[in-house]
Amino acid sequence: MACSLKCGSYFSGFNSNSKASTSKNFPPSSFGFLGKPPVLPDQKRGTGNCTCKSENKFSVHAETECVSRSMRWWEKNLKPNMVKIHSAQELVCSLQNAGDRLVIIDFYSPGCGGCKALHPKICQLAEQNPNAILLEVNYEELKNMCHCLNIHVLPFFRFYRGAEGRLCSFSCTNATIKKFKNALAKHGSNRCSLGPAKGLDESELMKLASAGELSLSSLQLPSLKEETMEDLVIMRSMELSDLFNKADNNRMKLEREGALL
């Protein structure tokens, strides 16, 4: 909680007209509030004596203005294995660096009632499965990325593991939380996969790159580069073939015209 404090300090508990009073001794005022020494009522010069109500003690009050808001629901009860995603690059890197651990992407929106109702249970399941990684994606903050990933309903979940890539994806609510539990039971057991973690599909990576959400040059995707080169070769071959066909058609046209002459 971020608060800003205004030091409008003042003294209370003094009343010069009080009949019942006690005398308290204070050292000479060598400290200051807001750069000025405090002014005490009925204080005799040089003695430091002041008159105050007997039922009240000397007190200093600080006027505080707190510019904060209560913790938002999607920030409550987060567990150590729940990671907030801020960009498509973070999502891709998190999936690729997860190794053989189960990774669950949780797509939510602050204004989604179903997401809010489900959140406490997701936190509880995350705590019960510490080896799994939950990546929290705020739909409102990363709307363009979510569109590229074809996320059109919330809350929505995707399960990934190692070289297997995406295992399953589905939407569920409190009423259908059994879907989530069944997926955890099926894919939650530890196992080793051959090869590096796959993460998002290459078609999805291409969509993110074309939308300006991702830089492919920063990714190590040899298979994607090979496929891209193959596509370029095929396209170039088709262009050359088209040129040759046009040249042949022109030659045949000229031959016919020459024969007519």
Automatic annotation (TrEMBL):
Cited Pfam families: Thioredoxin (PF00085)
InterPro entries with a match to the protein in the record: Thioredoxin-like_sf, Thioredoxin_domain
Alphabetical keyword list: Redox-active center
Domain annotation Thioredoxin: ranges: 95-164
Protein family: Belongs to the thioredoxin family.
Protein name, entry field: Thioredoxin domain-containing protein
Origin species: Hibiscus sabdariffa (roselle)
